[in-house]
Design brief:
The protein is mainly β. It has one domain. It contains one helix and eight strands; from the N terminus they run αββββββββ. Strands 3-2-1-8-7-6-5-4 form an eight-stranded antiparallel β-sheet, with no helix packed on it. The relative contact order is 0.21. The N terminus is likely disordered. Keywords: Signal.
Length: 134
């Protein structure tokens, strides 16, 4: 009986390891004067609240040359890690209130995505949506 209890605790501990991670879908103004969209991953959401840069190797560029419309199915590959993050932001989500459910995401685990406030995320990017591990 004690052995069974210990086995049940393992999935809970594993899911807790991802509880603070967040993926932002952002539009950016790059140093060269161009604009574009990108996904940014932070292992700890607390490290994304005051203009900090995303974790090393955790930026996936989507487009260059214009702001990106995140509505619809999109995949981003974080090049240094090889992890693919797939988002599915609902049509019309750009008109939702801040914090409203906007769609889903997946990187091998499910995420829920919400409308962000278009706040300055880091030195170059404005947060359009944030996605949290379910």
């Amino acid at each position: 009986m004690h052995f069974s209890t210990a086995l049940l605790a393992i999935p809970i501990l594993a899911s807790a390891a991802f509880a603070d991670e967040v993926v932002y879908l952002a539009n950016c103004h790059f140093a060269a004067g161009s604009t574009g969209g990108q996904a940014e991953y932070y292992k700890e959401i607390a490290n994304s609240q005051n203009g900090q840069n995303p974790d090393s190797g955790s930026v996936a560029h989507i487009t260059n040359g214009s702001p990106f419309n995140f509505e619809g199915q999109n995949s981003r590959v974080f090049q240094q890690t090889g992890v693919t993050f797939q988002s599915n932001i609902n049509a019309g989500a750009n008109g939702l209130a801040v914090g409203a459910f906007a769609g889903t995401g997946n990187n091998g685990r499910p995420f829920n995505c919400f409308r962000d406030s278009k706040r300055q995320l880091d030195s170059a990017c404005i947060a359009e949506y944030f996605c949290r591990d379910v």
